[in-house]
Amino acid sequence: MRATTNKARSEINAAIMKTWLDTKAKSFLLTEECPQCSLPELNTYKISDTLYLCECQACSIHGRGETHAMALKNTFDVVGDNIGLER
């Protein structure tokens, strides 16, 4: 019984992750220079009219907000907080 439950949970989690990744791929807006690692790897996604996500593909720093400017500000605000530096 437990194995069946765990398998079902894994399948649900995989479906949720696939949906999220598909949503991000369709929501790509632009790429900018990352404020933490300085590489041109900071992707911005417009997930919805009120949710923007900035996420560096190199160092994993990230931020979100209701506008692109807010998501970018929230990303800049965590520079130096060791987000993404554990790689």
Describe this structure in words.
The chain is an alpha+beta fold and 87 residues long. Helices cover 41% and strands 25% of the residues. It is built from 2 helices and 4 strands, in the order αββββα. The protein has helices at residues 2-27, 68-77, and strands at 28-32, 42-48, 51-56, 62-65. It has a 4-stranded antiparallel β-sheet with strand order 1-2-3-4. The radius of gyration is 16 Å and the shape is elongated.
Sequence-ordered SSE layout with sheet pairings:
Blueprint: H1 2-27, E1 28-32, E2 42-48, E3 51-56, E4 62-65, H2 68-77
Antiparallel strand pairs: 1-2, 2-3, 3-4
> Which strand order do you get reading across the main beta sheet?
1-2-3-4
Helix content: 40-55%
What is the SS-derived class? alpha+beta
Average pLDDT, rounded to a whole number, is 90
Count of DSSP strands: 4
Order of helices and strands: HEEEEH
Structure at a glance:
With 87 residues, this protein is an alpha+beta fold. It contains 2 helices and 4 strands; from the N terminus they run H-E-E-E-E-H.
Task: Provide tags for this entry.
alpha+beta; single chain; four-stranded antiparallel β-sheet; 87 residues; 4 strands
